[in-house]
C-alpha cells in the first residue's frame, strides 16, 4: 500500500539518487575531494564546495538520534533523525512498530515505502 507522504521530484541534480531508491538502495553522497559524507543529496559538497561527489551505498542500519510521534494526525506517523554508519543523520520515518517502544539510541534497519505519486522512500524500523 502506498503511503501518503510528500512526494519528491527527481531532478538532473538528484536523479541518480532517486533511481537508486527505486532499485531499493539508499545512497549517501560522499565527497572525493575532502572525504566527508553529507545529507541531503546534492551536486556540490557543502563542506568544501567540490563537485566531486559520489554516491555510496548505505549499510541499511542506523540508530535513532531523535524522534517525534504524531498521534493526532489523520494517519498517525513517527518522524525521526537516524544516524547511519556512513556518518550522516537522515530525516526519515519510523514504521511498522509501536511508537511507545521507541528510544533514542535504538538500533534500526532500512525499509522502503511506496509513496502516492512519487518514488519509493527510505524508512526505518526497529532492528
- Which structural class fits the helix and strand makeup? mainly beta
The amount of helix comes to under 10%
Strand order of the largest sheet: 5-4-3-6-7
Per the CATH scheme, the topology name is OB fold (Dihydrolipoamide Acetyltransferase, E2P)
Q: Count every beta strand, where a strand is a DSSP E run of 2 or more residues.
A: 7
Percent of residues in β-strands = 35-45%
Order of helices and strands: HEEEEEEE
| Secondary-structure arrangement, i.e. CATH architecture | Beta Barrel
CATH class: Mainly Beta
The biggest beta sheet is recorded as:
5 strands, antiparallel
Shape: globular
Mean pLDDT: 91
- What is the terminal separation in angstroms? 22 Å
Radius of gyration: 15 Å
How would you explain this protein's 3D organization?
The protein has about 130 residues and is mostly beta strands. It has one domain (about 15-125): OB fold (Dihydrolipoamide Acetyltransferase, E2P), CATH 2.40.50.840. Helices cover about 5% and strands about 35% of the residues. The chain contains 1 helix and 7 strands. The strands form 2 sheets. A 5-stranded antiparallel sheet has the order 5-4-3-6-7, with no helix packed on it. It has a two-stranded antiparallel sheet with strand order 1-2. A hairpin with a 7-residue loop joins β6 and β7 (about 120-125). It starts with 14 loop residues before the first helix and ends with a strand.
